[in-house]
Design a protein that fits this description.
422 residues; 17 helices; single chain; three-stranded antiparallel beta sheet
């Protein structure tokens, strides 16, 4: 089967029309490391870059030599070249607070920020993290301070949450249910109380039992205070969604060469196409290789079994055959021949055979892994032959500094160079 076209990382990063790169995929496939490596490589090639991560493990800060990341972009030191690299970690609640402070007068903002329902919503409501990631992306793009923004999407169970959550949250905050809760407060005074007591008594009674009376009152107070902001949530969500569809945006689907991860990647590729999102290609992390790929798993196992069957072919009835002199001398006789004085005894010979057999079995297992990964990649390529692929070899340890990120960036770019040399 023909290999997938190589993904041109450097042309993508060098193109000044590319303003946003979104790294997406399922959890645990290396999105954070990929985003950081791309940001560093772009900066060292002359771009002014900010990397926005939503990874709670804080690996990005450590690898970039920053004590901590927060909601403010911080410049990364020791970047080579003429560009700049900044990094930040999304603070979900702080981003929500900034929206409130920017779109409400001081008195109303204080009422919203102190409301218990708002505090719960901003800290962990389903979809809030993804929505705030989109909000922060929109804020960074509007500032026009960086010519490239690299986004590390939230580590969620489904990679589709990043696209779906903003609309879900926007619809919730601008939906009929919220409007219904808001109606009594908008009517005001006795009319509002009369409406609440007569027109909504059954609904609020039921909700009061389900949610608790205090929570229901907190929700209604929150809704009343947020009245002027509801339309803005949907408007900004729609604007950022259109930004993601714009020609200056490039999506990179990140996956590992495993069945579940590539199935998720294939599903995401299809979803991006359905939503007219610009897909640049697939980054396949932690791909295994071997410097002795010509030795198949079957041949390695056969050689291992031959070594493990018994004494080596130079052993006869427990004695070492001297191939140079053509005779056999029992080690137990204490003979003074050169063979008897040899420092290598039968146990040493057997241990070498066993060690060799063990290494051959390890190689066979590695070749099985390579074959399994290749079959998985082939299935993805058969489904999506139009998607360019960049493969990153599995590293012996975690990336924890700029040198490691730089090495990953070089591996990402090297494949296209190798393909061009053929």
């Amino acid at each position: 089967m023909d290999a997938a076209a190589p993904l041109g990382i450097d042309p993508l990063l060098d193109d000044r029309k590319t303003r946003i790169v979104v790294c997406c995929g399922s959890g645990g496939v290396g999105k954070t490391t990929t985003a950081a490596a791309l940001g560093l490589r772009a900066a060292e090639r002359g771009r002014k870059v900010v990397v926005l991560t939503i990874d709670p493990a804080r690996r990005l800060a450590q690898s970039m030599g920053i004590d901590s990341l927060d909601n403010t972009p911080r410049r990364v030191k020791d970047v080579e070249g003429d560009g700049e690299l900044h990094a930040m970690m999304l603070d979900m609640k702080r981003t929500f607070d900034e929206i409130v402070e920017a779109h409400a007068d001081p008195e109303r903002a204080r009422a919203i920020l102190s409301n218990p329902f708002y505090q719960s919503l901003s800290a962990g409501f389903a979809g809030t993290q993804e929505y705030m990631a989109m909000e922060k992306l929109g804020q960074l793009r509007a500032r026009d301070e960086w010519d490239l923004i690299v986004v590390d999407t939230p580590p969620s169970r489904s990679a589709l949450d990043f696209l779906d959550a903003p609309k879900r949250l926007g619809s919730f905050l601008d939906g009929k249910f919220i409007r219904l809760l808001m109606a009594p407060a908008k009517m005001g005074g006795r009319a509002g109380m009369k409406f609440l007591n007569v027109g909504m008594s059954m609904m609020t009674g039921t909700l009061g039992k389900l949610l608790g009376g205090q929570l229901l009152r907190d929700v209604q107070t929150f809704v009343a205070a947020m009245d002027t902001m509801f339309g803005g949530f949907r408007t900004r969500a729609d604007a950022t969604y259109r930004l993601l569809q714009a020609p200056g945006t490039a999506f990179l689907v990140v996956a590992a060469p495993e069945r579940d991860a590539l199935r998720e990647a294939a599903y995401f590729v299809e979803r991006l196409a359905a939503d007219s999102m610009p897909l640049a290609g697939l980054v396949l992390n932690r791909v295994h290789g071997s410097g002795a790929a010509r030795l198949s798993a079957e041949r390695a196992l056969a050689a291992a079994e031959h070594l493990e069957e018994g004494p080596g072919e130079n052993l006869v009835d427990g004695r070492i055959v001297d191939q140079g002199y053509g005779n056999a001398e029992d080690r137990g006789t204490g003979g003074s021949s050169p063979e008897a004085l040899s420092p290598t005894g039968p146990e040493d010979g057997v241990s070498v055979d066993r060690l060799t057999a063990g290494l051959l079995r390890l190689h066979a297992e590695r070749m099985r892994v390579l074959a399994r990964e290749q079959r998985t990649r082939d299935r993805f390529t058969a489904l999506h032959p139009e998607v360019p692929v960049a493969e990153v070899a599995a590293l012996p340890g975690d990336v924890h500094d700029l040198a490691g990120l730089r090495a990953i960036g070089e591996r990402l770019a090297a494949q296209e160079e190798a393909a061009g040399a053929l």
